């Protein structure tokens, strides 16, 4: 089947992504273009296929079919040079990312930066800046194994940014993060987008998505239900109400009457 042509200005262009687990089609021939410089929210109910789609789009999970271009570079090409280029362009924070937790936050970040080819001095400089920007100074000598969930999230985010990617893909970046840190993270990401970077994030918090994102795609059953600017998708409503209208699933009957009796 011919795929729709990809948008040449897209930062990330997903083309016909498919993932099947047994009888379950987790992601169903999904195509989506993410414009350069956008702050793009991916939303959808639990099990909709968001994580599966984003991990395939970023080179972490091989699709059964389809591929993704990041600024025109094929993430799933057989060329090692092109794959390495795609890795440089992308900064990724997957859901439930495993970190080297026997290292402190700064040691881990310096390690990641050097794996990306940065020299030790630059790696250390950027580590210090990110640790400061994410309010992790007090935990600089603590092993990641002893960090709270929110602190782990912040180190994971820093590791997605340290090599200076052009596109960052973040699965639930604000989950478990305190409100002040959330505001700092939002600021970092908004500055990045203002300078021409592209941010793609998945979230269940519609108020955050509506406030922050220039564009939104609503995913359900592995497909894009609707995508466009946040204004277009919200269609004059609160995004949360629009989301509920689009995906359904609200229970009308009272049920669970034994609870609280
Ligand atoms: N490794 C796997 N093996 C089998 N089924 C899987 C696997 N990974 C995901 N799935 C299934 O694929 C579907 C999509 O899962 P996915 O994690 O992508 O959803 P999601 O939209 O990210 O959900 P959530 O919002 O709950 O995180 C779900 O039905 C899930 O059970």
From TrEMBL:
<keyword id="KW-0046">Antibiotic resistance</keyword>
<dbReference type="InterPro" id="IPR050763">
    <property type="entry name" value="ABC_transporter_ATP-binding"/>
</dbReference>
<keyword id="KW-0813">Transport</keyword>
<dbReference type="InterPro" id="IPR027417">
    <property type="entry name" value="P-loop_NTPase"/>
</dbReference>
<keyword id="KW-0547">Nucleotide-binding</keyword>
<feature type="domain" description="ABC transporter">
    <location>
        <begin position="12"/>
        <end position="246"/>
    </location>
</feature>
<dbReference type="GO" id="GO:0005524">
    <property type="term" value="F:ATP binding"/>
</dbReference>
<keyword id="KW-0067">ATP-binding</keyword>
<protein>
    <submittedName>
        <fullName>ABC transporter ATP-binding protein</fullName>
    </submittedName>
</protein>
<dbReference type="InterPro" id="IPR003593">
    <property type="entry name" value="AAA+_ATPase"/>
</dbReference>
<dbReference type="Pfam" id="PF00005">
    <property type="entry name" value="ABC_tran"/>
</dbReference>
<dbReference type="InterPro" id="IPR003439">
    <property type="entry name" value="ABC_transporter-like_ATP-bd"/>
</dbReference>
């Amino acid at each position: 089947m011919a795929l729709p042509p990809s948008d040449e200005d897209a930062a990330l262009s997903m083309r016909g992504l498919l993932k099947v687990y047994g009888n379950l089609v987790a992601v169903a021939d999904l195509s989506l273009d993410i414009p350069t410089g956008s702050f793009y929210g991916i939303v959808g109910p639990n099990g909709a296929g968001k994580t599966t789609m984003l991990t395939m789009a970023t080179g972490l999970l091989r699709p059964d079919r389809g591929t993704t271009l990041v600024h025109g570079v094929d993430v799933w090409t057989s060329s090692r040079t092109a794959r390495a280029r795609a890795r440089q362009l992308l900064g990724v924070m997957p859901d439930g990312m495993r970190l080297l937790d026997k290292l402190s936050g700064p040691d881990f970040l310096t390690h990641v930066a050097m794996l990306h080819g940065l020299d030790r001095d630059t790696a250390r400089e950027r580590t210090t800046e990110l640790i400061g920007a994410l309010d992790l100074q007090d935990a600089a000598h603590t092993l990641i194994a002893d960090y709270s969930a929110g602190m782990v999230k912040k180190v994971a985010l820093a590791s997605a940014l340290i090599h200076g990617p052009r596109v960052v893909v973040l699965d639930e970046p604000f989950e478990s993060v305190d409100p002040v840190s959330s505001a700092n993270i939002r600021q970092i990401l908004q500055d990045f987008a203002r300078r021409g970077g592209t941010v793609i994030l998945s979230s269940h918090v519609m108020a955050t998505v509506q406030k922050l994102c220039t564009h939104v795609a609503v995913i359900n059953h592995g497909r894009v239900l609707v995508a466009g600017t946040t204004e277009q998708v919200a269609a004059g409503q609160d995004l949360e109400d629009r989301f509920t209208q689009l995906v359904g699933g609200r229970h009308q009957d009272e049920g669970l009457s034994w609870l609280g009796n």
